[in-house]
C-alpha cells in the first residue's frame, strides 16, 4: 500500500473517491459496455478532482488482482443514472557517528534496504523474536528491521513499521548499550522497554521501562523516561506526554479504543488490512470504546456497523469505506 501515498488522501474528497472506486469496478468488468465507457469519460472530464481520485484508485489497484466479475454487479447498479518533520554529548556522538546516523537523510538510506531486512512482518502479522543476548523484539504489522551484534553495542535498524524492544532480560555479560537507528535519528538504551513507530514522515517513541536517549539527526538529544511518549522528526522532538493505554495493546493482538475518534480508529485499523480503508469525514468524529481483535478486521468492521450509525461499503474487494448509514 505504500505506492498509494503518492496521491495524498487529503487532496481527494471522500465522496469523489467513492465514485472513482465504483467506476473502476464497472470498467473492470468483462462485459463493460460502450455506453458505460462513454459515461465514465464524461464523469472523468467533469472535474480535476475526478481525475485525481481516478489516479489514486489506479495506483492502489496495481497492488491487487483483477476482481472477479461476479463481485461487480453492486457497483454497476450504484452508478446507473449518475454523472457523477545537532548537537550531541561526546559520548553519544561516538556511538551514533560510528553507526552512520549523521549521514542519513529522513528517507534515502532506508527505502531499498527494507526489502532485504532480516526481520520482517507482513501486513496484519505480529511476530516475536528472541535475540542471542536475551533481548526481545515484537514486530507489529508491516515492519522491517535489521539486527547486528557489534563489539560495543547491539545495533538495530528500523526501516519501516513498529517494534517493541525489551532489553531488561539481557544476558549478564551483555553490558554494552543498545542503539536503534531510524530515518529521523537514533535511540540509545540499556535495560529498558520501549516501542518505536515509523509513521512515514515522523517517528513515535514510547518508553515503558527505564529510559531512552533520543538523538534526532539534526537536533540535541533528549532523555525520555518511563511513562512518556514523544513524536520526533530529524530536527525536532515534541513535548513528552503520558503514555496512552492503547500503546502496547497491539502486542496482544488488540486494538484498544477509549473514547477514540472513529477516524483515528479507522486509520489504525487500516495498518492491519491490505487494500484501501477510509472513513467519511462526516462520521469521523463518532467515538469508539472497546477492545477489538486485530486478527479479524472484517469482524471489527461488522461490529462498527452494528454499534454505530454507519454503513460499510465494498465496491471492490480491496476497497472498503465507512460512511453514514442511510436514513
Automatic annotation (TrEMBL):
Residue spans crossing the bilayer: none
Pfam entry (one): FecR
UniProt domain FecR N-terminal: residue ranges: 18-58
Domain FecR protein: 119-213
Organism superkingdom: Bacteria
InterPro entries (UniProt xref): FecR (IPR006860), FecR_N (IPR032623), Ferrdict_sens_TM (IPR012373)
PANTHER family with a match to the protein in the record: PERIPLASMIC SIGNAL SENSOR AND SIGMA FACTOR ACTIVATOR FECR-RELATED, PROTEIN FECR
Name this polypeptide is given: Membrane protein
Organism whose genome encodes this protein: Pseudomonas asuensis
Amino acid at each position: 500500500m505504500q505506492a498509494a501515498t503518492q496521491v495524498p488522501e487529503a487532496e481527494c474528497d471522500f465522496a469523489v473517491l467513492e465514485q472513482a472506486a465504483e467506476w473502476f469496478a464497472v470498467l473492470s468488468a468483462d462485459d463493460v459496455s460502450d455506453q458505460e465507457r462513454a459515461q465514465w469519460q464524461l464523469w472523468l472530464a467533469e472535474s480535476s478532482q475526478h481525475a485525481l481520485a481516478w489516479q489514486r484508485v489506479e495506483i492502489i489497484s496495481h497492488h491487487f488482482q483483477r476482481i472477479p466479475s461476479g463481485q461487480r454487479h453492486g457497483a454497476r447498479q450504484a452508478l446507473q443514472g449518475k454523472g457523477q518533520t545537532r548537537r550531541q554529548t561526546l559520548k553519544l556522538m561516538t556511538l551514533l557517528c560510528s553507526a552512520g546516523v549523521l549521514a542519513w537523510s529522513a528517507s534515502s538510506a532506508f527505502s531499498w534496504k527494507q526489502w532485504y531486512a532480516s526481520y520482517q512482518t507482513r501486513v496484519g502479522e505480529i511476530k516475536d523474536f528472541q535475540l542471542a543476548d536475551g533481548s526481545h523484539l515484537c514486530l507489529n504489522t508491516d515492519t522491517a528491521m535489521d539486527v547486528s551484534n557489534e563489539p560495543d553495542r547491539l545495533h538495530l535498524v528500523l526501516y519501516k513499521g513498529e517494534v517493541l524492544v525489551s532489553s531488561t532480560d539481557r544476558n549478564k555479560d551483555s553490558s554494552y548499550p543498545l542503539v536503534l537507528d531510524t530515518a529521523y535519528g537514533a535511540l540509545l538504551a540499556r535495560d529498558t522497554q520501549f516501542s518505536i513507530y515509523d509513521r512515514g514522515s515522523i517517528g513515535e517513541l514510547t518508553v515503558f521501562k527505564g529510559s531512552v536517549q533520543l538523538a534526532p539527526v539534526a537536533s540535541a538529544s533528549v532523555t525520555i523516561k518511563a511513562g512518556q511518549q514523544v513524536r520526533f522528526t530529524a530536527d525536532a522532538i515534541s513535548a513528552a506526554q503520558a503514555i496512552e493505554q492503547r500503546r502496547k495493546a497491539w502486542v496482544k493482538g488488540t486494538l484498544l479504543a477509549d473514547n477514540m475518534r472513529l477516524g483515528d480508529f479507522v486509520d489504525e485499523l487500516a495498518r492491519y488490512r491490505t487494500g484501501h480503508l477510509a472513513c467519511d469525514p462526516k462520521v469521523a468524529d463518532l467515538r469508539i470504546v472497546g477492545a477489538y481483535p486485530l486478527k479479524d478486521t472484517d469482524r471489527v468492521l461488522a461490529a462498527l456497523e452494528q454499534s454505530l450509525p454507519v454503513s460499510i461499503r465494498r465496491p471492490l474487494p480491496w476497497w472498503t469505506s465507512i460512511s453514514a448509514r442511510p436514513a
